[in-house]
């Protein structure tokens, strides 16, 4: 599965609150391949190689949990992703259907 998502980093590994200045929303073209969520910055081109920065942004979804962010009301169609090492991301999908589709895909790999 792939598509555009807007990401906010809420907690770094061990659940430590991500510091100010690193909590902004950023758009990525997201590719779910196996157990990795690749986050590609900038314009999407299918033949484009993942940059070093893209690889740093990659998220392992092994033993992770995605769920609708019902308590987050500033933006619509937002879900949480909590990873095995207790990072927490918020992802905004373009619509409710896409949000549900990402949640299902992440939770059923
Ligand atoms: C963050 C940015 C986020 C905001 C976050 C800020 O600043 O403005 O949009 O989250 O608030 O810290 P920066 O880009 O400097 O990291 P919201 O959009 O959810 O308000 P937060 O610290 O309360 O999460």
Question: How would you characterize the overall build of this protein?
Answer:
With 109 residues, this protein is α+β, with helices and mostly antiparallel strands. It has two helices and seven strands; from the N terminus they run βββαββββα. A hairpin with a 5-residue loop joins strand 6 and strand 7. The chain is globular and about 40 Å long. D-MYO-inositol-1,4,5-triphosphate binds next to loops.
Q: Provide the helix percentage.
A: 10-25%
The major β-sheet equals: 7 strands, antiparallel
Please provide the ordered H/E string of secondary-structure elements.
EEEHEEEEH
Beta-strand content bin: 35-45%
Counted by DSSP, the helix tally is: 2
End-to-end distance: 11 Å
Principal-axes shape call: globular
Instruction: Give the number of DSSP strands.
Output: 7
Bound molecules: D-MYO-inositol-1,4,5-triphosphate
Task: Report low-confidence residues grouped into runs of 5 or more.
Answer: none
Question: What's the arrangement of strands in the largest beta sheet?
Answer: 4-3-2-1-7-6-5
C-alpha-based Rg, rounded: 13 Å
Structural category? alpha+beta
